[in-house]
Specification:
Number of strands: 0
Helix content: over 70%
Structural class: mainly alpha
C-alpha cells in the first residue's frame, strides 16, 4: 500500500512538473546545451563518489582489512538500487554487500550509512545558511513570502535534531539502551532476539563520531563531496548559458547553484520515489526560478533539472549494474539475501 501511495504522489508531481512547462521550449533548451561540458560534469560526479568512498572508510574506522575498491563498489551499487527502487532500499543492499565482502556486522555498517546521511544534511544546511547569510536581504525577503518556508524550517529542524541525538548517543549510549528496551517490549516475538545485540551494533557504528576531533574530520571530509556536486550544477548551468542571468559573475552562479543543490538534496533526502525522481526536478526548477527572479523560465529550468538529475543518476546506475555483474550477482539475489539476513 505504501508503495502505491508513493507512486501516486510521484505521478502527481511529475504531471505537475511537465504540465507547468512548455514542452517545445524544454526541447529548445536541451538542444542549446553545449555537449562538450558533459564529460567534465560526469568526471566531477565520479570524483564525488570517490570522496564518499574515502569518507565511508573513515566512518568505518579506517580499517586496513576493508578494501577501498569494495567500498567504492558498495557505494555505486547502493546508489544504483536507490535510483531504480523506492524508499532507499539501496542503503540496506549496500550494507549487505559490504558486510558480506568483509564479514562485518551488517547492522553496524547500516548505522555508518545513517551517520553519513546525517553528515550530508548538516553540511548542506551549513552551505544553505552561508548562502542565505551572504544574500540575506534578497533571499530572506523572498523566503518570507513563500508558504513553503515553514516546511523548510521543519526539515532543517529535523536533521539538526537527528545530528544532536546522534552525537549525544555516541557519547552516552544510555539513550540507545533505553530506546532499545522500549522497542523490545513492544516488538513482535520474532524480532526480540534480533534486538538483543542492537545496542552493540549501534555503538560500534557510532564510534567514528564519539570524539570531537573525528567528528570534525568527518564533516571536513563531507565538504568535497558536495563542492564537487555543486560544481556539476555550475557546469551544466554555464553550458546552458545561465551566466548571463548572474551578470556574468561566476561567484553569483556558484552561490545560486549552492542554494539549488542544498535545497534539492535536502528535500529529496526523504525516502521517496526511485532516485527522488519528480521531487528533485520540481525543487531544482522552482528554487532556480526563485533565485533568478524568474529570469530563468519554467521550461528552461525544467530542462536544466532533468539534465542535472540525469548526470547524477544514469552513470552511477550503469556503473553499479556493471559492478553487480562483475561480482556474479543480480539485483534480485541481493534483495533476496538481504531479506533472509534481515541485517
Amino acid at each position: 500500500m505504501k508503495y502505491l501511495i508513493l507512486s501516486v504522489i510521484t505521478l502527481v508531481i511529475l504531471v505537475f512538473f511537465v504540465a507547468t512547462a512548455e514542452f517545445g521550449r524544454m526541447l529548445d533548451s536541451f538542444t542549446s546545451l553545449r555537449l562538450n561540458f558533459l564529460m567534465p560534469a560526469l568526471a566531477l560526479y565520479l570524483l564525488s563518489l570517490i570522496f564518499r568512498t574515502y569518507r565511508w572508510k573513515l566512518l568505518l574506522g579506517n580499517r586496513d582489512d576493508v578494501s577501498s575498491y569494495n567500498l567504492f563498489q558498495a557505494v555505486c551499487i547502493g546508489y544504483m538500487v536507490n535510483n531504480i527502487l523506492p524508499m532507499r532500499i539501496g542503503e540496506f543492499v549496500r550494507a549487505y554487500f559490504l558486510g558480506s565482502k568483509h564479514n562485518i556486522n551488517k547492522a553496524t555498517v547500516l548505522v555508518t550509512i545513517f551517520v553519513e546521511r546525517i553528515l550530508d544534511a548538516i553540511v548542506l544546511i551549513g552551505f544553505l545558511l552561508i548562502v542565505i547569510g551572504l544574500n540575506a536581504q534578497t533571499l530572506l525577503k523572498g523566503f518570507a513570502q513563500q508558504y513553503l518556508t515553514w516546511g523548510l524550517l521543519v526539515l532543517i529542524g529535523f536533521f539538526v535534531t537527528m545530528f544532536v541525538l546522534m552525537v549525544y548517543s555516541a557519547h552516552d549510549p544510555v539513550l540507545i539502551r533505553k530506546s532499545t528496551k522500549i522497542i523490545t517490549l513492544i516488538a513482535p516475538n520474532r524480532f526480540k532476539s534480533r534486538l538483543i545485540n542492537f545496542n552493540d551494533f549501534v555503538e560500534s557504528g557510532l564510534s567514528s563520531v564519539r570524539s570531537s576531533r573525528s567528528l570534525l574530520v568527518l564533516i571536513l571530509a563531507s565538504i568535497p563531496v558536495w563542492i564537487s556536486e555543486i560544481i556539476v550544477f555550475c557546469i551544466i548551468g554555464y553550458a546552458m548559458g545561465f551566466l548571463q542571468f548572474y551578470n556574468n559573475d561566476y561567484l553569483n552562479l556558484f552561490s545560486s547553484m549552492t542554494l539549488v543543490t542544498a535545497l534539492a538534496n535536502l528535500v529529496s533526502s526523504i525516502p521517496s520515489s526511485p532516485g527522488g525522481v519528480g521531487i528533485f526536478e520540481l525543487t531544482v526548477r522552482e528554487v532556480l526560478l526563485f533565485d533568478t527572479s524568474n529570469l530563468v523560465d519554467r521550461s528552461t529550468g525544467a530542462a536544466f533539472a532533468v539534465i542535472v538529475h540525469g548526470i547524477l543518476i544514469i552513470p552511477v546506475t550503469v556503473v553499479g549494474q556493471l559492478l553487480l555483474w562483475s561480482n556474479n550477482l543480480s539485483l534480485r539475489q541481493l534483495i533476496a539475501s538481504k531479506k533472509q539476513s534481515d541485517l
